[in-house]
């Protein structure tokens, strides 16, 4: 496994990461502390007043949660 993409995100962090992958003009409000955590991890960045997913964030989202791998198996 590549440790660069192994993140143990909470369900809220996964949901927020999915929500910001396609920004909408009237997007729902996201938990500020969760977004700040994603920014600190380099998975999102602030553009103006809204979060956007980074390239690293997209890679992590595509790879998925290791906890979900057991469910899929």
Topology, please?
Blueprint: H1 11-20, H2 32-40, E1 44-47, E2 50-53, H3 55-63, H4 66-72
Antiparallel strand pairs: 1-2
Helix pairs in contact: 1-2
Describe the structure.
- The protein has 4 helices and 2 strands.
- It has one domain (about 5-70).
- It is globular.
- The protein is mostly helical and about 70 residues long.
- It has helices at about 10-20, 30-40, 55-65, 65-70; strands at about 45, 50-55.
- About 20% of the residues are buried.
- Strands 1-2 form a two-stranded antiparallel ribbon.
Question: Key features?
Answer:
73 residues, mainly alpha, 4 helices, globular
Mean pLDDT: 81
**What value does the Rg take, in angstroms?**
12 Å
Q: What class, by secondary structure content?
A: mainly alpha
The backbone outline, from C-alpha atoms, is globular
What's the number of helices?
A: 4
Helix content: 40-55%
Q: Within the largest sheet, what's the order of strands? A: 1-2
């Amino acid at each position: 496994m590549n440790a660069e993409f192994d993140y143990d995100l909470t369900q809220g962090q996964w949901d927020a990461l999915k929500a910001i992958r396609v920004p909408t003009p009237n997007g729902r409000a996201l938990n500020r502390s969760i977004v700040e955590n994603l920014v600190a991890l380099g998975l999102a960045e602030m553009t103006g007043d809204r979060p956007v997913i980074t390239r690293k964030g997209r890679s992590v989202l595509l790879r998925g949660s290791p906890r979900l791998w057991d469910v899929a198996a």
